[in-house]
Amino acid sequence: MDIILIGDSGHARVITDNLVSCGHQVIAKLDAKYSELTKEDGCWFGPISEVHALIQKEGAKVIVAIGANAVRKKIVEQLGLSDEQYAIAVHREAIVSPSAVLGRGTVVMPGAVVNAEAQIGNHSIINSRAVVEHDCAVGDYVHISSGATVSGVAAIGEGALVEAGASVIPAKHIGEWSVVRAGSAVLEDVEAFTTVVGVPAQVIAKKASKIESAN
Prior knowledge:
- The protein is an alpha/beta fold.
- It has 2 domains: 2-85, 3-Layer(aba) Sandwich (Rossmann fold), CATH 3.40.50; 89-201, UDP N-Acetylglucosamine Acyltransferase, domain 1 (3 Solenoid).
- 14% of the residues lie in helices and 30% in strands.
- The protein has an 8-stranded mixed beta sheet, covered by helices on one side.
- A hairpin with a 2-residue loop joins strand 3 and strand 4.
- It is globular and about 50 Å long.
């Protein structure tokens, strides 16, 4: 499958490796840092505004390769593409249960595990060696960072960030656009627009909106 990436930074490089591992080809990287469309070694580089023309020209699908959840959502909304125009990228060394459901635009990195009946929303990131256990519900625009664990039947709201090495115990809920800092252990529900840290995790900040709490 031919893929157009929106974004050309470190996260995009990781997603490129992810796609290549599955036999896909990145045929374009579009980013705000480019002012005109050029082609180098078979790959297009240019502004994000070129995405519609390249989809029509190349018949490719799209992944928004931006690590920041709020920025990723903003770009998806601006592009106005249908769900079917987005790809799903699962690294060949990831484990995804046949009964799990992955949303469009979502990426699952090497060593990650998505277990039975888990549901992952659109445009989310399950990063390297992260674990999403059975029956979890992970919303759109979520980032489960490297080495983080979301235990069975937990729910992660839209736009939430679970940082590296953090853990959420079974059946707990992380509210939308909240942040669980690295290495924390969530033993109780976390309200929306809230940042928690520590073992056990404690509230250190609350924001009024997802824009203010953009990660």
